[in-house]
Specification:
- This protein is α/β, with parallel strands linked by helices and 512 residues long.
- The chain folds into four domains: 2-140, Beta-Lactamase; 175-340, Rossmann fold; 343-414, Helicase, Ruva Protein, domain 3, CATH 1.10.8; 427-507, no CATH class.
- It has 18 helices and 13 strands.
- It has helices spanning 2-8, 52-64, 77-80, 118-162, 179-189, 205-214, 236-241, 258-261, 277-289, 315-320, 326-332, 349-364, 373-381, 387-402, 409-414, 457-471, 482-486, 490-500; strands at residues 14-23, 28-36, 47-49, 68-70, 91-98, 101-110, 195-198, 223-227, 265-270, 291-292, 301-302, 305-311, 335-338.
- The strands form three sheets. A six-stranded antiparallel β-sheet has the order 3-2-1-6-5-4, sandwiched between helices. Strands 8-9-12-7-13 form a five-stranded parallel β-sheet, sandwiched between helices. A two-stranded antiparallel sheet has the order 10-11.
- A hairpin with an 8-residue loop joins β10 (291-292) and β11.
- α5 packs across α6 and α12 (349-364) crosses α14 (387-402).
- The longest helix is centred in the N-terminal third of the chain and has 45 residues, at 118-162.
- The N and C termini lie far apart (81 Å).
């Protein structure tokens, strides 16, 4: 403002320049910038609270009014009440408006004994547009600064609660049970293509999405996580794309959506299958055009965002049921990554338990303790329907119950009763959710077992899947596919088939 004042003083008899901004919530007018053109100009910037009547006149003028000249004898008391102390004499005041919305006002104060002419008013009018842009930029800068400070405070709080030093810690199991997943992460991280992470609830989809972000060229940008299933349908557009002030009841100010906040970074859309169809249409447009429009807005905004989506649902089946858009499915399914369940990576349990035990010690202020061999045996025998998220909760509970002396895993698993390893189910009740051994399976169909024979679990599972593929002629997805027949997610079924060495092409020409 001081530089602007020095430049304008050649055309106007200036004593000083003021920029003020109103706050509708508190009925106050704040002096946000002062430029001094004459040594005798002394003002004390302040935040003035206006009476209700003066505030109504002030708002009406900001919205629809023109430039006003405030001579010493005029009666614009409602406007003079907003001025800081020291702003006296002949003045010109003009509203700063952008897209029909008032952002503030510009005031120039004449030198003592001098006044502004019609020519001066015309020059003053030319200042309103560039000053409007400057005030808008200033507001955005301070908003982003506040958001960064809030995000950093939340980050530090979360790291403290989780017992971590940083968000880029090594992925537990990245060299063992998640080795194939991390290989795919390394392949895709450097590109900007959308990634779709698939897997059961609690398998670590957010951890993998953060690993993609930290290994990408956007690592220095924001990582924003949005749980699509937690947003009320009527607020989805506002939360994702933002809204303009007054665009709906309760929209008291402009709001930046998640896409704007994730600009130059990564937006993680968790549970993308929960998005309502109208929001899917707008999301598809963003992916295609890299532009958004705020709710109630008329000007497209360019965003540079990398999308990582995740779901535990069968999006292919949802497409057939018309609950998920087919074009969006093709757009986000460019590079899918399937996460194994904890039942499929039992070798990672010792490392995961130690990781969660250290985290629990930091969170609860307890001494760090190591799991015993008996603890690990109990944990390996459990079925883990909640996957890694459930394991973390069990270790937290075990650390609290152990009081810092040990991990009371048995009680934590049984909630007060002695827990026992999960017994193996009879073959007649075996399901596809049992753990599949890592040994390579035979490439051909296993011979059927004689009545009453006990066969290995992998062989029984292989026979069951092959019967389903025979009945569906090798079809896996859809209402008439093997996955629907077996009541299992198609991605999980494919993972079982790969481990068991089952080729679906062998069944496509066989009669059902």
């Amino acid at each position: 403002m001081q530089a602007i004042t020095a430049a304008v003083s050649a055309a106007l008899p200036l004593r000083g320049v003021l920029v003020l901004r109103g706050d509708a919530g508190s009925r106050t007018v704040e002096t946000i910038a002062v430029g001094v053109a004459h040594d005798g100009f002394r003002v004390a910037p302040r935040t003035a609270e206006l009476p209700a009547d003066a505030w109504r006149k002030f708002l009406r003028w900001l919205k629809d009014g023109e430039t006003l000249q405030l001579a010493a004898t005029d009666d614009h008391a409602w406007l003079r009440a907003a001025m800081p102390a020291g702003a006296v004499g002949d003045m010109l005041a003009g509203p700063l408006r952008a897209a029909g919305e008032a952002t503030g006002m510009l005031v120039v104060v004449a030198q003592p004994g001098m006044g502004f002419t019609a020519s001066h008013r015309a020059t003053f009018g030319q200042l309103l547009e560039p000053l409007t842009v400057a005030v808008e930029n200033d507001g955005r800068f301070h908003e982003l600064k506040s958001l960064r400070e809030a995000a950093e405070a939340d980050r530090q709080t979360l790291l403290t609660r989780l017992g971590k030093q940083g968000v880029n810690e090594e992925v537990v199991g990245g060299q063992t049970g998640l080795r194939h997943v991390m290989e795919r992460v390394e392949l895709v991280a450097r590109s900007d293509v959308p990634v779709l992470i698939l897997g059961e609830t609690g398998t670590g989809k957010e951890v993998v999405s953060r690993a993609i972000h930290t290994r990408s060229k956007r690592a220095d940008g924001p990582f924003i996580r949005v749980n699509c299933g937690a947003i009320p349908p009527e607020l989805v557009d506002s939360q994702l794309f933002g809204h303009e002030k007054g665009s709906f009841t309760g929209a008291a100010e402009q709001h930046q959506g998640w896409f704007e906040r994730a600009d130059r970074g990564t937006l993680f859309l968790d549970e993308i299958g929960e998005l309502p169809l109208p929001a899917q249409v707008r999301l598809l447009r963003v992916l295609q055009d890299h532009q958004i429009e705020r709710v109630g807005g008329k000007v497209p905004l360019h965003v540079d965002v990398r999308i990582v989506a995740a779901t535990h649902r069968d999006l292919g089946a949802m497409v057939q049921q018309k609950t998920f858009r087919e074009d969006l499915w093709y757009r986000i399914n460019i590079f899918p990554i399937l996460l194994p369940t904890l039942r499929e990576r039992l070798e990672d349990i010792p490392a995961l338990v130690r990781h969660f035990a250290q985290r629990a010690a930091a969170r609860f202020g307890l001494p760090a303790v190591e799991p015993s061999a008996a603890d690990l045996e109990l944990l390996a025998g459990y079925d883990w329907p909640g996957n890694i998220r459930e394991l973390g909760a069990v270790i937290d509970r075990a650390a609290i119950l152990g009081g810092g002396r040990r991990l009371d895993v048995a009680t934590a698993l049984g909630l007060g009763r002695q827990a026992q390893p999960v017994p193996r189910m009879p073959l007649s009740d075996a399901t596809l959710y049992e753990v599949v051994p890592e040994e390579p399976a035979a490439q051909h169909a296993a011979p059927p077992a004689a009545a009453g024979d006990i066969v290995p679990l992998a062989q029984a599972m292989q026979q069951h899947i092959e019967r389903a593929l025979t009945a569906t002629r090798g079809r896996i997805e859809g209402r008439r596919g093997a996955a629907a027949l077996l009541d299992i997610n198609p991605h999980t079924l494919r993972a079982r088939m790969r481990k068991l060495g089952i080729d679906p092409n062998r069944f496509r020409d066989e009669p059902p």
